[in-house]
Amino acid sequence: MPDDAAAPGDRVPQVPLSEALPTWIKVALLSFGGPAGQIGVMHRLLVEERKWVEEKRFLHAMSYCMLLPGPEAQQLATYLGWMLHGTRGGLVAGTLFIIPGLVSLFVLSVLYAEFRDTTLVQGVFFGLKPAVMAVVLEALLRIGRRTLVGRLQALLAAGAFVAIFFLNVPFPLIVLAAGLLGYAGSRMSPSDASRRHAEREPEASSIAAPSLGFVVRTAGIWLALWFVPIAILVAVFGRGSVFVDEAIFFSKAAVVTFGGAYAVLAYIAQQAVEVYQWLAPGEMLDGLGMAETTPGPLIQVVQFVGFMGAYRHPGGMSPLAAGALGSLVTAWVTFVPCFLFVLLGAPFSERLRGRRNLSAALSAITAAVVGVILNLAVWFSLHTVFAELTPLSFGPLRVLMPNWGTVDWAAAALAVGAAAAMLRFRVGMVPTLAASAVCGLVYTLLMG
Description:
The protein is an all-alpha fold. It is built from 17 helices and 2 strands. 73% of the residues lie in helices and 3% in strands. A hairpin with a 2-residue loop joins strand 1 and strand 2. The longest helix has 43 residues, at 72-114.
């Protein structure tokens, strides 16, 4: 892989990749709870505990990754890995981040397709989901304290939350509006903006501008990795095969998933059920439940869709073999673009660090992202504690109203216990998750 635009060395500790590897494995294994929890895990391990990445650099990387289509947390892991160890580090961090979910979703897909009985696994994940709510809450409090340093940032975060949760404003528009507000503020009052952002934004980077050769080589390699396998599938199975259909469909989905998986899942579910008939009605929710309770990005639910689609339309292959190939093809075309966007764009992002107007725009985007993460946390919490949510509309306002008759008291109790353990008694994240998983398994077996 081209590495002439390797990660900048200014104020980044020179940690050997062999030393960083166990930490990236830990990040991958603890990547529950959607973007909020996953970003919180990386912040805790890399910024607070290891002190490998400065707070300012972490927030800058997070703001850039939030601008990209695709899973924000996986791209942030790739960016931070690149920052520490260049292209090799980005590949290691980004790949490890998706492996636990890849394996988990494949195993659960096989169990679902063959037996439809995942009681033991569901018991463990039943305990994990409420505990993840505590992880998300703790991450929000920690990141919010460091990001929302003034009234303007707090207002931007609140406005972003209201816009996406109550008004259903598309995520890209929120990011664009926040960036424009920050940029306009720096232009109208440059001296105040400079003083306000000076302490929060990284110093100007000394990294050289990426060369044209780097751009051509990086784009060429990753575009080839993306599209050559699709061409091979066409040559081997024919244009009308399920594998080619999945490769093309999920390639398109990979470039429109701004704002995370929730923004595109409704479209994917509709196409998978009504157009391609890969899933039966209701099965998308089963897959979503698997993805929400396994490590890795929520967008990995597409792997379940790819498995079931190929399992039901195997052509001349056995259903399990076809499902495995469909699962792999779907995951490949979903995540290869993520590496392209980060490894090509990160050097430019770092090059622009410290430029006052851009810093003001990114600072505003970072504040708005806190509101977006709060939206994801509330969404995740509501769907964990309540079995039914009713969407209500009042003019332009949209509210998810929980049905109090469907509250899951066991999940609520586990969530409260996990929150008390982490926030009040300072119990570590791993012991809290482990204890909750055991409680969930015992509860499921007793109630089953």
